[in-house]
Design brief:
The protein is α/β, with parallel strands linked by helices. About 50% of the residues lie in helices and about 15% in strands. Strand 7, helix 12 and strand 8 form a beta-alpha-beta unit.
Amino acid sequence: MKKWRKRLLKTFIFGLLAIVVLVGSGLIYEQVSTSQDLKSYTPSGKLYNVNGKNMHVYTGGQGDVTVVLASGWGTANPYVDFSPLYEKLAPHVKFAVYDRFGYGYSDTTDKKRDIDTITNEIHEVLQASGQKPPYLLVGHSLGALETLRFAQKYPDEVQGIVMLDAGSPEYYYNDTDPVEAGFINKLLIKTGVIRMLFQADSVIESTRSMRNGLKFVPDELKQIDLTASLLKLENANIADEMRQFKVNAKVVLDDKQPFPFPLTVLTSDYLGVSDEVWNKYEAEFTSWSLQAKQLVVKDTDHYIHQYRPDLVADEILALTKR
């Protein structure tokens, strides 16, 4: 019996040591790899000081109207994500892709991600980067909230709005709830497990499936997207955006008045998989403007602009001419 207990104790100790070594090695691997990634992860646009932190904006194009592109929640690098779209827009209009704090090339901030703080930061960085209204605002997914709030706070600077499979404030407030990142998920990130999984092509392809495999994105930008995904997987700003979206939706709802400028709501058909609740709110999203229309875009998933950048660009350009 004593020998059995000693063997059991030795097995437990060796097992515990093995776990400590593996976790420690994983932590070091993640830290070293992150440090290496940061050396090559240089801004594609320019950085501007907003409340003592650097905020990134990528601009281009030509014309009298500036299209301002707001990415959805969890989109690690908006510069890459919107590339198929702004390439179509550039010959006709100016464009500005901004990175909220915690995304892309922007810093992480200590300020809470309430909707008015986010919107004020966007307004400030557009001014700092030399953008001039009128703006044509384009919001993807959760980016709808800051897009609408910007139009509420600065209506004289807005010419129109296009929503890219974006949830309405009514949807976010009434029919969905925040989801906190679990301890296990955070542990897998910190110990390098997620990074190791991303070495497999099948995992990378899986993460890109909702984005049409990044079909219209050049290989060098795909690499930037992969690096950004690993660097931005989990940070306080992205987590707080998720935590606050219901409260943020209520703020936007409380100030609801139909806009006088046009609104186009582009809705994905989710490759033929229907969601009655989502479709109901998308159809009702047009109540946010006196000049509104909805278009369901066939054979697309949530990232409509990765499937039909041509159609999305045409709908945006149609509003810039009104």
